[in-house]
Amino acid sequence: MFKHAIVRKPCKNFQFGISTSNLGKPDYQRALVQHSKYVEALRKCNLSVLELNGNDRFPDSTFVEDTAIVDREFAVITSLGAISRQGEEIEMSDKLKTFYDNVESIRKPGTLEGGDVMKVEEHYYIGLSNRTNNEGANQLKRILKRYGYSSSIIPLKKVLHLKTGISYLGDAILLVSGEFKNHHDFRKYNLIEVQESEAYATNSIRINEYVFIPEGYVNLKKQILNFSFKVIELEMSEFEKMDGGLSCLSLRF
Ligand code: CIR
Question: 20, 34, 156, 229: which one has the fewest Cβ atoms less than 10 Å from its Cβ?
């Protein structure tokens, strides 16, 4: 069960973040509304939410997931691979120290972003991407080993982050699209294949008894309801324009 979440409001410079989506400029007011509904949904799941203010120095800083890995007894501050995002982790580190006695760090030349890290029960998968390099992934592996967790490294082909194309919903169920549909490492799980026209919705998240999915993905919604999950749909259009999904908007622990 998750008890806490940390989020950060989109800042006024949100539109200047990194984007490859070709979906146009995000509407800032709409982004703020979508974000506040996301926070409301977290509260509905009984999480206590720490909401940080937007920071104009970092247009992408609402995507807090990339700044840390959070587990039960420890947190790991990452080393962001995107140059414009380096420094976002500093304030997060201070905040996490108020929750955790054990706060570790990934150090340069290692880079690692939280979007590349997926925990499935007691095992971690770490994506090697344009943002997470071998050195960063191996530093995380060593830290996880000290805390008793196994991990494996998954080189990525197309997706921005590992969790762009795969998400763990609990109960050995994974949502997969694209390069993860026939991936050797994930065959042993119960896979829900997301159709390519709905690939964005692969980045859905299980929070306590709910699954959050982006609004407007009717097939995925049906597939998830078939597994008898309770679903919360959230409008994500403005974050999608900036390549961000549901998991990116919070740290949950
Ligand atoms: C970026 O490119 O860094 C942001 N515009 C989007 C980050 C999305 N984060 C994530 O998938 N964990």
Answer: 20
